[in-house]
Amino acid sequence: MDLRPLLSVLAVLGPVWGSTLDVDYGGVPLWINRYLGEPSVLSLRGRMDPSWFRAVNTQSCPTECECPIRWPTALYCDYRGLGEMPGGLPSRTQYLFLQGNNLTGFSPDAFANATRLRWLFLDRNQLLSGRLDAGLFSGLTQLVNLFMNHNNLTEVPAGLPGQVRQLRLAYNHIETIPPGTFQNLQNLTLLLLQGNRLKVVGESDFRGLSSLNLLDLTGNLFEKFPRHLPPSISQLYLSNNSMVGVEGDVLQGFPSLRYLRLGRNRLRDGGVDPAAFNLSSLVELDLSYNQLTQIPVVPTTLQYLYLEANQISVFNVSSLCREVSPTAYSRIKILRLDGNRLLHHQLPADWVMCLRVLHHIYV
Ligand SMILES: *[C@@H]1O[C@H](CO)[C@@H](O)[C@H](O)[C@H]1NC(C)=O
Ligand SMILES: *[C@@H]1O[C@H](CO)[C@@H](O)[C@H](O)[C@H]1NC(C)=O
Ligand SMILES: *[C@@H]1O[C@H](CO)[C@@H](O)[C@H](O)[C@H]1NC(C)=O
Ligand SMILES: *[C@@H]1O[C@H](CO)[C@@H](O)[C@H](O)[C@H]1NC(C)=O
Ligand SMILES: *[C@@H]1O[C@H](CO)[C@@H](O)[C@H](O)[C@H]1NC(C)=O
Ligand SMILES: *[C@@H]1O[C@H](CO)[C@@H](O)[C@H](O)[C@H]1NC(C)=O
Ligand SMILES: *[C@@H]1O[C@H](CO)[C@@H](O)[C@H](O)[C@H]1NC(C)=O
């Protein structure tokens, strides 16, 4: 057995997720994107002869789909140009693959017989919010993973059952979060909303998400750093928005925040409070591709600092180290300052004393 994919899963998920995530792949053949930690699903298409399958498999199987013999809880109906959900869904189904079709919506009882569903893949369809009944998913009391990336949703779907752990809604047209959407989702740990059209976060929009760990809001329309985010988050991705500043208090109240990505915004010194990022929990801070002229004050516990492609012209050691002594130094391992207005010979003599455990510096 080739253990490499498994090892890379562990390598990716280990440090990021720690033990907080109960990874339930249920035997699903997945590839994990090493950089994003994102599962992508292997299609069975072209791997097996469907007619052979049908001839030897005695279990019921919708004609549009394939039912792997060794994995009776899975149903593959992906990449078939389906405009409608196949009828006669076997009630044994726990993993339903419907990605890459042409679905715009579902009848209200489409999942009525699929009460054992755990993972539902609806990526790359044309789903419209107006064609998803409010009660569509509410009977799926085993559902833990819902994939709806790359669709045409304009709202976060309502009525999700309370035990859902991962919700992927990246690359839709989402502008609004209807009131109470997340109210019951206290077990949700991962919420992907990158590539949507969110502009503001209302006070109660994310209310209920008491276990949320990762929130990805990359590539939306935020002009201001959003407030009212769930206090439990440890990974917050807000790159590729249009934010000009970060107020001093906006990052207070996130005791677990470890990974903060704010690259590709329009951050300027005037808008960024000098102490906004001085949070002792931070491990990684990405401020690349902004308009900063100074290195902001960061905690000495920070390990990864990305400041490439800004307009920084001075290297002020005090941003990284308040004092330098045998016990007081910066834990930074990787520091990127390339694509700025700094030259190597401009580094002050004392930087080596401060950056004592540095692995790589790019100037
Ligand atoms: C997908 O659905 C749309 C509208 O329902 C239709 O116009 C189009 O031909 C369909 N495409 C495919 C590949 O079936
Ligand atoms: C659910 O199962 C019942 C009984 O087998 C059947 O009559 C009904 O049509 C099924 N509903 C759906 C939406 O498949
Ligand atoms: C979904 O959005 C795409 C553009 O992102 C568009 O081409 C397509 O027609 C839309 N589909 C529906 C059913 O509205
Ligand atoms: C959330 O997860 C816990 C622990 O796994 C479980 O006991 C609880 O029932 C779940 N909550 C909901 C609403 O399903
Ligand atoms: C940034 O987001 C926009 C949409 O808001 C998208 O078109 C663009 O490709 C993204 N750029 C990068 C570098 O991710
Ligand atoms: C940054 O945080 C440290 C530790 O909490 C504190 O001692 C220091 O004064 C802070 N610096 C600034 C500029 O806020
Ligand atoms: C470095 O920053 C500190 C405060 O953060 C400031 O007092 C000092 O003047 C700065 N030094 C230079 C050379 O800019």
CATH level-4 homologous superfamily of the largest domain: Ribonuclease Inhibitor
CATH architecture of the largest domain: Alpha-Beta Horseshoe
Q: Beta-strand percentage?
A: 5-15%
CATH class placement of the largest domain? Alpha Beta
Summarize the biggest pleated sheet: 13 strands, parallel
Tell me the number of structural domains.
2
| Gyration radius, in Å | 23 Å
Mean pLDDT: 86
| CATH fold-level topology of the largest domain | Leucine-rich repeat, LRR (right-handed beta-alpha superhelix)
**Secondary structure tally, helices:** 3
The small molecules bound here are:
2-acetamido-2-deoxy-beta-D-glucopyranose
Low-confidence stretches: 1-27
Quick take:
The protein has helices spanning 4-17, 50-56, 351-354; strands at residues 30-32, 39-41, 74-76, 95-97, 119-121, 145-147, 166-168, 190-192, 214-216, 235-237, 259-261, 284-286, 304-306, 334-336, 360-362.
Helix and strand layout, with pairings?
Layout: H1 4-17, E1 30-32, E2 39-41, H2 50-56, E3 74-76, E4 95-97, E5 119-121, E6 145-147, E7 166-168, E8 190-192, E9 214-216, E10 235-237, E11 259-261, E12 284-286, E13 304-306, E14 334-336, H3 351-354, E15 360-362
Parallel strand pairs: 3-4, 4-5, 5-6, 6-7, 7-8, 8-9, 9-10, 10-11, 11-12, 12-13, 13-14, 14-15
Antiparallel strand pairs: 1-2
Bound molecules: 2-acetamido-2-deoxy-beta-D-glucopyranose (NAG) (7 copies).
Give an overview in words.
It is elongated and about 75 Å long. It has helices spanning 4-17, 50-56, 351-354, and strands at 30-32, 39-41, 74-76, 95-97, 119-121, 145-147, 166-168, 190-192, 214-216, 235-237, 259-261, 284-286, 304-306, 334-336, 360-362. It folds into two domains: 1-242, Ribonuclease Inhibitor (Leucine-rich repeat, LRR (right-handed beta-alpha superhelix), Alpha-Beta Horseshoe); 267-363, Alpha-Beta Horseshoe (Leucine-rich repeat, LRR (right-handed beta-alpha superhelix)). It is built from three helices and 15 strands. The relative contact order is 0.06. A hairpin with a 6-residue loop joins strand 1 and strand 2. The chain has a 13-stranded parallel beta sheet, with no helix packed on it. Strands 1-2 form a two-stranded antiparallel sheet. The chain starts with a helix and ends with a strand. With 363 residues, it is mainly beta. One 2-acetamido-2-deoxy-beta-D-glucopyranose binds next to loops.
